């Protein structure tokens, strides 16, 4: 066990799914497919004499997130100029919020190693995104398509104490943003990025150490790796009697190290002052209540309901609700199979169906397996018409072709064989055809019972009812034992 513990706070930057940019009418486009510098105008490229105008839809989305994170929504907030110079910032400043953000003092409950833990949210505010730089040999290219895209910043208090908590918190935020339909969560497209403030301190101390900030982490994996490295680096410095330098770091994912970028900026370095071209932002309480009443059922509430309503485990419930589309699929399948326990359907989704989706890199909404098809398949299994082995084959075929399970069962002859007499005959045939193995079994090698079981199942191409096969096989083997004892 380490003698030092990490103290971590996250800043999460999420591009909002509006049609137009934060302060102009330019379209928001996919940066991975659009031609560079085609969704730009004089406002988002910082031309002199231009005036910004606030995107109302972006404000609504920000309020939606603030409410979901239990924040106080301020009826008056103020945009400010954050001054710094970088090639991807055409105006030489970014319009953001500083002293008077839109939402503050919220919280989010997550699972930690010690159980449920509350992570405080310091603020949620709006700003504009920057352009995108592409560095080539000896020069850089800038694309301003992203410049001015509405950006939501969520800032936590330094309440995170482990990588597990960091992962759970960041995944929970992503899930909420997707439930609210304000961000796609497509990390590979850069629409959600993390910055981590981290320090270490002796275990048991309540003092904060000198922190560093790791910028622009664009995946959960990169964030966890960077934090692991920085915890080790700072712990070694402290254990050797050194002092951690407060600075801004980048993550070198090739060499798996943090690298110094610049001295850590403080608020005064940005020379914040109210944006003179924008009046204070006023949102009335009636609009806030209207937005609140339209919020969907959020993941934590939905998970608690699933446990109570469907008798699934808390772990399974959390897996199901992590993505809204999966939760909707589950409930639709349960509704379509009223005679099947909900936990059986949950198990098929989280194991076999997830496995197929992961192999193909697909979302559940792209799958040819409908909720009704899965419900039909699980009903066939639970009624004894198809065994679990054959059902997996059916699911794979439905996944590939979209054919209903019952048609696949009929076409491939996969209906479960439950005729006890027919199974008895097959068991006797297997025992007669394998005298050497039978002698070994009778000689004490009783684990061969499982081999005989496999031979019977193979003879029926996996269609035989396993419990009937087991009963018949055990009875046949016991009868042979008894006959040997009575006729030595």
Features:
alpha+beta; 21% strand; Arc Repressor Mutant, subunit A; single chain; 488 residues; 41% helix; 3 domains; nine-stranded mixed beta sheet; three-stranded antiparallel beta sheet; 15 helices
Description:
- By secondary structure, this protein is of the alpha+beta class.
- The protein folds into three domains: 4-292, no CATH class; 297-412, no CATH class; 420-486, Orthogonal Bundle (Arc Repressor Mutant, subunit A), CATH 1.10.10.410.
- The chain is built from 15 helices and 16 strands.
- It has helices spanning 56-68, 163-179, 220-239, 285-293, 299-310, 314-321, 324-336, 342-360, 371-382, 388-401, 405-412, 420-433, 435-442, 448-459, 466-486; strands spanning 4-15, 72-73, 76-77, 79-83, 93-97, 103-112, 115-128, 132-136, 139-143, 150-156, 192-202, 212-217, 247-252, 257-263, 273-274, 281-282.
- A nine-stranded mixed β-sheet has the order 2-6-7-10-1-11-12-13-14. The chain has a three-stranded antiparallel β-sheet with strand order 5-4-15, with no helix packed on it.
- Strand 6 (103-112) and strand 7 (115-128) form a beta hairpin.
- Helix 2 packs antiparallel against helix 3 (220-239), helix 5 packs across helix 6 (314-321) and helix 14 (448-459) crosses helix 15.
- It starts with a strand and ends with a helix.
- The model has no long low-confidence stretch (mean pLDDT 91).
């Amino acid at each position: 066990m380490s003698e030092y513990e990490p103290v971590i706070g996250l800043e999460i930057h999420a591009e909002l799914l509006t049609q137009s940019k934060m302060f102009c009418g330019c379209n928001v486009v996919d940066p991975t497919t659009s031609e560079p510098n085609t969704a730009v105008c004089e406002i988002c490229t910082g031309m002199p004499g231009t005036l910004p105008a606030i995107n109302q839809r972006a404000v609504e989305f920000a309020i939606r997130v603030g409410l979901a994170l239990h924040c106080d929504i301020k009826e008056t907030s103020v945009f400010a100029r954050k001054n710094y110079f970088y090639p991807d910032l055409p105006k030489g400043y970014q319009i953001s919020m500083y002293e008077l953000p839109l939402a503050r003092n919220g919280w989010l409950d997550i699972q930690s190693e010690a159980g449920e833990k509350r992570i405080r949210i310091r603020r949620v505010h709006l700003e504009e995104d920057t352009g995108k730089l592409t560095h080539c040999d000896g020069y850089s290219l800038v694309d301003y398509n992203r410049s001015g895209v509405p950006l939501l910043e969520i800032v936590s208090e330094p309440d995170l104490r482990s990588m597990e908590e960091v992962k759970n918190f960041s995944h929970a935020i992503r899930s909420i943003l997707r439930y609210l339909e304000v961000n796609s969560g497509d990390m590979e497209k850069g629409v959600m990025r993390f910055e981590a403030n981290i320090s270490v301190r002796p275990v048991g101390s309540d003092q904060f150490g000198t922190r560093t900030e790791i910028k622009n982490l664009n995946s959960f994996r990169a964030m966890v790796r960077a934090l692991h490295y920085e915890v080790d680096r700072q712990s070694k410095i402290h254990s050797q009697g050194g002092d951690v330098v407060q600075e801004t770091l980048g993550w070198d994912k090739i060499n798996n190290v943090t690298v110094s970028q610049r001295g850590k900026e403080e608020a005064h370095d940005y020379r914040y002052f109210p944006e003179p071209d924008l009046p204070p932002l006023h949102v009335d309480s009636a609009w806030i209540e209207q937005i609140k009443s339209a919020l969907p059922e959020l993941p934590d509430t939905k998970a608690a309901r699933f446990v109570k309503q469907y008798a699934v485990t808390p772990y399974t419930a959390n897996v199901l609700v992590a993505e809204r589309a999966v939760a909707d699929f589950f409930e639709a399948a349960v509704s379509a199979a009223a005679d099947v326990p909900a936990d059986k359907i949950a198990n098929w989704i989280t194991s076999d169906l997830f496995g197929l989706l992961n192999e193909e890199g697909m979302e559940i909404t792209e799958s040819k397996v409908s909720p009704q098809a899965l419900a039909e398949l699980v009903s066939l299994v639970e009624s004894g018409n198809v065994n679990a082995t054959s059902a997996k084959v059916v699911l794979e075929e439905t996944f590939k072709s979209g054919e209903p399970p019952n048609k696949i069962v009929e076409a491939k002859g996969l209906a479960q064989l439950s005729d006890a007499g027919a199974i008895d005959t097959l068991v006797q045939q297997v025992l007669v055809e394998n005298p050497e193995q039978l002698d070994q079994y009778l000689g004490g090698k009783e684990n061969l019972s499982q081999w005989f079981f496999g031979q019977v199942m193979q003879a029926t191409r996996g269609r035989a009812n396993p419990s009937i096969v087991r009963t018949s096989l055990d009875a046949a083997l016991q009868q042979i034992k008894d006959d040997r004892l009575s006729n030595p």
